[in-house]
Design a protein that fits this description.
Length: about 375
């Protein structure tokens, strides 16, 4: 039986980014994934925005990793990896005087989070309409952020996987982790592969199982967090609708629909409208779409760009944010009783943006315990 340094559970953007970083550092690493393909869960059902970093609550881990992660995209991933991305500024639009207060708050929050004043600007109605002439004419003002990007998260995950594979990482698809046994020196990670059981021996385990991270942690009594799910549904419009936008991701100010509903260009030329924010979703329903919410998304899309033809639907999709109930923040820590097991959980938005920073942080944690072993 092959013995690995590290088993990573889950081949979403987080598990694959961590695997890539560990393989680069010379670890013998394997990823086990229950699905037949990588990046089929939350990594596929999101807005695909690399956020500037003005939105997260200052002081939270996700605020810090947003900024570090975004800079790592700029300095490393955009240069080193072959995947579709574009620099696209973002606008958070205020449609009333009252919403302008929210836009101003976001500006100051961005500065508190470490953005440079040169990356953020509050625009007047005239300036907004010059940038995006088809925007709702009742627009009052907007927050412009010049350090955001759009990416294809699935193709990014494949690009990372290709690099990890070149560095001798391994991947087993259709392998669902069902049991983890720990001994003094090793872990035995058992997976269900069709009708067979396959067991991997390793020194360290990284739990990057998304919505199932709680269940994986429970297998070694290391579940010190609880997860809930908030679903977001999207409507992807035909490429013809791209003519209504110049080149911005346009957010409504955050409301009950979460961090902000957007109308945004996609790297493949389609237009993305959504997401909703539906609470208390069952694990089996994290990628469900329904027609009731389609109407809401279409209405919100037209609120941003009235001339958008929201009937020209190419695809409906969805994803759910895994949320740590206790902290509403990312969980990235060793199991309390065993530093060879690391939980990465509650990776809601901006997890895609933070992915390179999470990978570095977790690889450093693994390095630290390896040095302790010598
Ligand atoms: C609506 C929405 C919009 C978002 N927009 C943005 C955005 O614009 N920008 C941004 O930065 N972030 C955004 N995010 C957040 C981002 O999508 C997530 O943080 C990120 O995708 C999380 O990736 P992950 O690898 O942790 O999870 P996942 O992609 O869910 O991967 C977990 C993997 O683990 C596997 N797995 C589970 N259980 C097992 C098991 N027992 N055995 C083996 N494998 C298992 C799953 O099959 C899955 O492939 C958004 C999220 C949502 C839901």
């Amino acid at each position: 039986m092959t013995k690995y340094d590290v088993v990573v559970v889950g081949a979403g953007i987080i598990g694959i980014a961590v695997c890539d970083e560990l393989a680069k550092r010379g670890f013998k690493v394997v990823v086990v994934e229950k699905n037949p393909k990588i990046a089929e869960e939350t990594t596929e059902g999101n807005s695909g925005i690399i956020h500037g970093g003005f939105d997260p609550t200052p002081g939270k881990l996700n605020a810090k990793l947003n900024l570090v992660g975004r800079k790592l995209y700029e300095e490393k991933w955009f240069k080193e990896l072959d995947f579709p991305w574009q620099k696209v500024d973002s606008l958070v639009i205020a449609l009333s005087e009252k919403e302008k207060e929210a836009v101003e708050k976001l500006y100051y929050r961005g500065i508190e989070n470490g953005l440079q004043p040169s990356e953020l600007k509050i625009l007047t109605q005239k300036e907004v309409r010059n940038l995006e002439p088809n925007i709702n004419p009742i627009v009052d003002s907007a927050l412009l952020c010049t350090s955001s990007y759009i990416v294809d998260p699935v193709l990014l995950t494949y690009a990372l996987w290709n690099r990890a594979k070149a560095n001798k990482a391994e991947l087993f698809l259709n392998h669902q982790v069902t049991k983890i046994k720990e001994s003094k020196t090793d872990f035995l990670v058992t997976c269900k592969n069709l009708d067979q059981e396959v067991t991997f021996t390793c020194k360290k385990v990284i739990n990057a199982a998304g919505h199932y991270a709680d269940e994986i942690a429970k297998m070694i009594k290391a579940q010190d967090f609880n997860l809930i799910r908030r679903r977001g549904q999207y409507c992807i419009l035909e490429k013809t609708e791209a003519q209504t936008l110049k080149n911005h991701v346009i957010f409504l100010v955050p409301t009950i629909y979460g961090k902000g509903v957007i109308v945004a260009p996609m790297p493949d030329g389609h237009i993305l409208v959504g997401p909703t924010a539906e609470e208390n979703i069952a694990k089996a329903d994290t990628r469900l779409v329904d027609f009731k919410h389609l109407k809401i998304i279409q209405k919100l899309g037209k609120k941003i760009i009235p001339s958008l033809n929201v009937e020209r639907i190419s695809k409906l999709t969805s994803g759910s944010r895994p949320i740590c109930q206790e902290t509403d923040d990312f969980v990235i820590r060793y199991a309390k009783h065993n530093q060879n097991f690391i939980n990465i959980a509650g990776i809601k938005s901006p997890g895609l943006t933070a992915a390179p920073a999470i990978a570095l942080q977790v690889a450093d944690m693994i390095d630290r315990t390896r040095k302790g072993e010598k």
